[in-house]
UniProtKB/TrEMBL annotation:
This is Acyl-CoA dehydrogenase. Residues 171-191 have a biased composition (Basic and acidic residues). The keyword Transport does not apply. It comes from Streptomyces brasiliensis. Residues 290-439 form the Acyl-CoA dehydrogenase/oxidase C-terminal domain. Belongs to the acyl-CoA dehydrogenase family. Residues 157-170 have a biased composition (Low complexity). The lineage of its organism: Bacteria, Bacillati, Actinomycetota, Actinomycetes, Kitasatosporales. Residues 8-109 form the Acyl-CoA dehydrogenase/oxidase N-terminal domain.
Length: 453
């Protein structure tokens, strides 16, 4: 891996992003409802042109965006990242019709995307997922879904769209917790699903050449159940492991799709999804049938280094707060920074943060240059950066004392935020497994200095 440094233009851009996050995005984040999608915040990311860059920039730019936003507004960083994670499979593997239908709305912040891979029994072991895509031979198994679609097209033939698909213990995946439609602009002819506005019937009329019915559950899905569409991974061939998975683009208004929000340690839009014979067709496939695992892993290889960038942004924010606090805090007849134990702790925090940042940039550069060791670099970057951020934030809390644990303090917020990245998009233990697998997959190292008997 060659050495590198950021160009002056990139450094300036990062400073601009930090300022925008503090001045324009954080106020919107503070007005959002904890645990739910903040649509005004996403729309502002679109107006600033940051969502468009998800589809026009490389991995290094993605890392710079996520690190810079995380430093000043973790909510804005997360909103941007989730749009990219959910929509990247459409950008990279979607048909022209799928891309034209959804990507402009994602880029301007009017459509919310979600990446639906994890299941109650298949988190780290993604190849073990059990959401079934059962062939629909037209024998009647999908009559309920077909009737709902007909009702959408012709209200006189059935119940109104907004009443279709309610289930006990859950709610339609496209409805807000208060019962109102999360995408009311669809119903009033002002959203991406309205043909009069240039939309197509991809969101509500599955009439492609092949048909399946999705049955099962997804869990820990960010932006669920309020997203407008989901990149869903389902098993199309039983007993085939990773080779029997297909990626589907599933709009939230498909009949049989319901969801429920989950309350987490850090308020975050996340929930579960239930698929009750949800109809999909060949028009909804992303990539190729039975090749969906490749779609998932390609997406994660791009986004894993940027999860590390998110972590580095949080670590830097904690380090900056600690430097300011230890400079001004009086203790034992001097400033806190004058205590050797404190100074050494801060030095260690800075050392680890910079090391993690460099590894993240190296992994992103490897991706952008199509290096052969991208999976290895991506896993190393995510592992080191997320573990480092946990250490740095925890150390910052310790040096601040009880004040850092008060609700509303920056470090209290970061302490809750920093835990999840060590789990999602591949837990730390999974990253170690990937690293070892990639190392042993390479050619055996030559022994220049064999051991002597």
């Amino acid at each position: 891996m060659s050495a590198f440094s950021l160009e002056p233009e990139q450094i300036s851009w990062c400073a601009e992003l930090r300022a925008l996050a503090a001045e324009r995005l954080r106020p919107l984040a503070e007005k959002g409802e904890p645990g739910h999608v903040n649509r005004p915040l996403v729309a502002e990311l679109g107006r600033l042109g940051l969502l468009t860059r998800l589809f026009t920039s490389g991995a290094l730019d993605l890392c710079l965006m996520r690190e810079s936003l995380a430093h000043a507004c973790t909510e804005a960083e997360t909103a941007l990242a989730l749009q990219g994670l959910g929509a990247h499979p459409v950008h990279a593997h979607g048909s022209p019709a799928q891309r034209d239908r959804w990507l402009p709305a994602v880029a301007d912040g009017t459509a919310i995307a979600a990446f639906a891979l994890s299941e109650p029994g298949a988190g780290s072991d993604a190849a073990a997922l059990t959401l079934r895509a059962e062939p629909d031979d037209g024998s009647g198994a999908g009559d309920e879904g077909s009737a709902a679609l007909a009702a959408r097209e012709d209200p006189a033939r059935g119940a109104a769209f907004g009443t279709v698909g309610a289930t006990a213990g859950g709610r339609r995946a496209d409805r807000r917790p208060d019962g109102g439609a999360a995408r009311t602009d669809r119903e009033h002819g002002d959203g991406p699903g309205d043909p009069a506005k240039g939309g197509t019937a991809l969101d509500a009329r599955p009439n492609g050449p092949r048909r399946w019915l999705l049955t099962g559950e997804k869990c820990w899905i960010s932006n669920a159940p309020e997203a407008d569409f989901y990149t869903v991974f389902a098993r199309t061939t039983s007993g085939a492991g990773a080779r029997g998975v297909t990626a589907f683009l599933v709009p939230a208004d498909r009949p049989g799709l319901t969801g429920a929000a989950l309350e987490m340690l850090s308020p975050h839009p996340i929930g579960s999804l239930t698929f009750d014979a949800v109809p999909v067709t060949g028009d909804d496939v992303l990539g190729e049938v039975d090749r969906g695992f490749r779609v998932a892993m390609g997406t994660l290889n791009l986004f894993r280094p940027s999860v590390g960038a998110f972590a580095v942004g949080m670590a830097q924010a904690a380090l900056d707060a600690t430097l300011a606090h230890t400079r001004r805090r009086d203790a034992f007849g001097g400033k806190l920074k004058d205590l050797q134990a404190v100074a050494h702790q801060v030095a260690e925090m800075a050392l680890r943060t910079d090391a993690a940042r460099l590894m993240v940039y190296a992994a992103a550069t490897a991706y952008d240059t199509s290096a052969p060791d991208v999976p290895l670099r991506a896993a190393m970057a995510k592992l080191l950066a997320t573990e480092t951020a946990q250490y740095v934030v925890d150390s910052a809390v310790q040096l601040h004392g009880a004040r850092a644990l008060r609700r509303g303090h920056l470090l209290e917020h970061l302490y809750r935020e920093v835990r999840a990245p060590r789990i999602y998009e591949g837990a730390s233990e999974v990253q170690r497994g990937i690293i070892a697998k990639e190392l042993y997959a390479g050619p055996p190292a030559t022994e220049d200095h064999p051991e002597h008997p």
